[in-house]
Amino acid sequence: MKIERGELLTEADVAGKNYRRFEFTDSGISPRLPIGTPGAVFWNTGDEHNELGHVTEESMMRTRMHENRMRKLETADREIQEKERVNFFGDEDAPMTIVSWGSPKGAILEAMEMLLKDGFRMNFVQVRIPHPLPKKYIERILGNASKKIAVEGNYSGQLAGIIREETGILMDYFILKWNGRPMQWKKFMKHCSISFKTGPKQGRC
Amino acid sequence: MALKLSDYRTQVFNDWCPGCGNFGILTSLQMALVDLALEPSRVVIVSGIGCHGKTPHFVNAYGVHTLHGRALPFAIGIKLANPELEVIVHGGDGDGLGIGAGHFVNTGRRNLDMTYIIHDNGVYGLTKGQASPTLKLGVKTKAMLKPNINEGVNPIALALAAGFTFIARSYCYDVGHLKETIKMAVKHKGMALVIVQQWCPTYNDINTKGWYNGEDRIDPVSGKPIPRLYKLEESGYDGVVRKPEEVIPKTVAALTRAFEWGDKIPIGVFYQNELLSTYQERISQRITTYPGTPPAKEIIADNMGEPVTSIKKMLDELKVTG
Fold first, then answer.
1. How would you label A153-169 residue by residue, b for 16+ Cβ within 10 Å and e otherwise?
2. Which residue of B has its CA nearest to A54?
3. Is there a domain that residue A35 lies in?
4. Is the pLDDT confidence value at B1 over 90?
5. Residue A106: which CATH number?
6. Does A59 touch chain B (CB under 8 A)?
7. Residue A129 resides in a domain
8. Structural domains counted in chain A
9. What is the nearest CA distance from A42 to chain B, expressed in angstroms?
10. What are the tens digits of pLDDT across the range B221-243?
11. For A12-16, what is the mean pLDDT?
12. pLDDT at residue B103, rounded to an integer
């Protein structure tokens, strides 16, 4: 593991300068300075603020500061490889694709092995970073899938919602569970089998 | 070069109401910083939410304007991460003794070497003057439809119970007294609390400047108002604990004075005890390198980005085999 401290300044970097903690930058990231560094001061607030960090309600400043913050997402999208934002399991050319995030992973991996024996060949994308969504990666994998299955531990299919918002792709099957308990591979498998026979619908594990 | 008052001022437009007690507190704070000759970059001013919350923006020092009632947890983090800094926390009576009451009590227990200044005006001024936790039972200020249904909390008694080791009260427009009180609080070794009685000219029409000055109580002999505030030290009171056996009697004495209100309101130092260990000292006993290397200055990676510590041994111990 490598530790990258990012744009971290030191006393020497700010000596004799008027340091601006929230300076506008192309990347949206303003180089930071540890609080208490000699020779500088800055302010932090939860309200909208100017480059120094002082509270402001001035609308042009608000607009520019908000744009500066939003640029961080674009920077993150550029800097973090799409492949790093997902875990991928199975063969790229499998006809069915499961998309999930978080804890259902274990149940999905076990069920995938069993379902393969029943003749269902699938791959699985576990999304690790939903914002910014690895759009191109997901579009490519889902574009090749004949059956797109969302597996999530919530009522509405939150990740599927983000994918639809960002890519326009609608999942075919939703296997969701919202009783606060972990996904179990046997029940999950049962629902897959039923769903695949009866056609696209929302199932419950 | 000696620091001047202007070195602690910023260019930020001040939108407190004309006559707000905060002006007196801000000036006293800046004057105290001048007297203490603290470099702006060694000082961190932390605040919560409310009218007092903008205080850091008007002081040329590191400033952290935090969440409602949560100034203390931020400040504790700042102080522990870098004990070389002088951390001065501002809170409101609504902010610090309403939603922040839990943090107030637990900060007293820790006895960190910091200063906490509460701007106490009896109302939630920023949100149009509702009764704050320190407003007394039965008092009805301007924005209230009916008199206060709750009894006011006594912040000095609460601070004694919580374990603050410096407890004082001052007044927003006795700038000299407040400045000296803030200086004592900053110099105190341990957690210091300064309650500042403050008027809110917009919403508190009961505890006004005239009320504190006693303009409703004219001395029949001199014809002058009899002020409600009196100085503890001028009444022969001494709240400083010098020997362990003085802790209980001095706490009791402070508690008795803490409940004086109305016609006679004491200002000054109620209680001070530097015999108790500070939180930093307690940590140093467990972590021998603290605060020699403050966590904020710890080097965590070498030039190649390799972590300088390894937790492999700890992980290996937790490994389940077989």
1. beeebebbebbeebeeb
2. B57
3. yes
4. no
5. 3.40.50.920
6. no
7. yes
8. 2
9. 5
10. 999 999 999 999 999 999 999 99
11. 95
12. 98
Q: Do B64 and A47 touch (CB under 8 A)?
A: no
Residues A149, A88: one domain?
yes
**Chain B: residues touching A (Cβ < 8 Å):** 10, 12, 39-42, 44, 54, 56-57, 60-67, 78, 82, 84-85, 296-297, 300-301, 304-307
Taking 70 as the threshold, does the pLDDT of residue B112 lie above it?
A: yes
Six token digits for residue A65 = 């500061």
Cα B181 from Cα B194, distance rounded (Å): 7
**Residue in chain A nearest B298 by alpha carbon:** A34
Q: How high is the mean pLDDT of chain A?
A: 93
Contact A3 B62 (CB under 8 A): no
Residue-number span of the structural domain to which A72 is assigned? 11-79
Query: Who contacts A8 (Cβ-Cβ below 8 Å, separation ≥6)?
Result: A31, A32, A33, A34
**pLDDT computed for residue A201 by the predictor:** 60
Mark which of A33, A54, A79 sits at the end of a domain.
Answer: A79
ipTM value, please give it: 0.91
Please name the member of B41, B54, B307 whose beta carbon is closest to the beta carbon of A41: B41
CA dist A77 and A128 (Å) reads 13
Strand partners, B197: B120, B171
Q: Where are the domains of chain B?
A: 5-282
Q: CB B57 to CB A45 under 8 A?
A: yes
Q: How confident is the model at residue B121 (pLDDT cuts 50, 70, 90)?
A: very high
Which CATH class for the B5-282 domain?
alpha beta
Q: Do A35 and B62 touch (CB under 8 A)?
A: yes
Average pLDDT for B268-287: 96
Q: Are residues A24 and A116 both part of a single domain?
A: no
